[in-house]
Amino acid sequence: MMKQIVLAFFGSIFPVILFNIDRKKIIWTGFCGVFGWITYLMVYKYTVSPVSASFAGSFIVGVYSELMARKLKTPAVQFSIPGIFPLVPGITAYNTINYIVEQNYSAAYSKGMQTVAVAGAIAFGIMLSSTTFRFISKLVRAKKLQQ
């Protein structure tokens, strides 16, 4: 498990270099991927569902990204995009294509649907965390204006 966490850290750091994000944020984006992956592992252990585990992991990535964006005064995307890299269903997509090449269409359909479901769960988790943060921020601002 520790090996997976270290790989998630590096898996979140390398996109920072690829996308030319400010180098001062490298460590923080690594932690973003680590928190998302730890959440994924914990949820997967109890649900055995890659879709729900990916949703939970991406939601935590989104929350962490929003918090760090406010703390470091930078866009949340600089943390969320590298943070979701460990959660992306790359091997599942590869298996889908491999089954198509082997003309095993029932297995390809199954893996393809899983790939789409996990990708949708990741997108929904990020969107929900971002929307929740914006909603809470509006409530806090409105409360400050009333005082």
TrEMBL record:
<keyword id="KW-0997">Cell inner membrane</keyword>
<feature type="transmembrane region" description="Helical">
    <location>
        <begin position="113"/>
        <end position="136"/>
    </location>
</feature>
<feature type="transmembrane region" description="Helical">
    <location>
        <begin position="50"/>
        <end position="67"/>
    </location>
</feature>
<dbReference type="InterPro" id="IPR050539">
    <property type="entry name" value="ThrE_Dicarb/AminoAcid_Exp"/>
</dbReference>
<dbReference type="InterPro" id="IPR024528">
    <property type="entry name" value="ThrE_2"/>
</dbReference>
<keyword id="KW-1003">Cell membrane</keyword>
<dbReference type="Pfam" id="PF12821">
    <property type="entry name" value="ThrE_2"/>
</dbReference>
<keyword id="KW-0812">Transmembrane</keyword>
<feature type="transmembrane region" description="Helical">
    <location>
        <begin position="6"/>
        <end position="21"/>
    </location>
</feature>
<keyword id="KW-0472">Membrane</keyword>
<feature type="transmembrane region" description="Helical">
    <location>
        <begin position="79"/>
        <end position="101"/>
    </location>
</feature>
<keyword id="KW-1133">Transmembrane helix</keyword>
<protein>
    <submittedName>
        <fullName>Threonine/serine exporter family protein</fullName>
    </submittedName>
</protein>
<feature type="domain" description="Threonine/Serine exporter ThrE">
    <location>
        <begin position="4"/>
        <end position="131"/>
    </location>
</feature>
<comment type="similarity">
    <text>Belongs to the ThrE exporter (TC 2.A.79) family.</text>
</comment>
<feature type="transmembrane region" description="Helical">
    <location>
        <begin position="26"/>
        <end position="44"/>
    </location>
</feature>
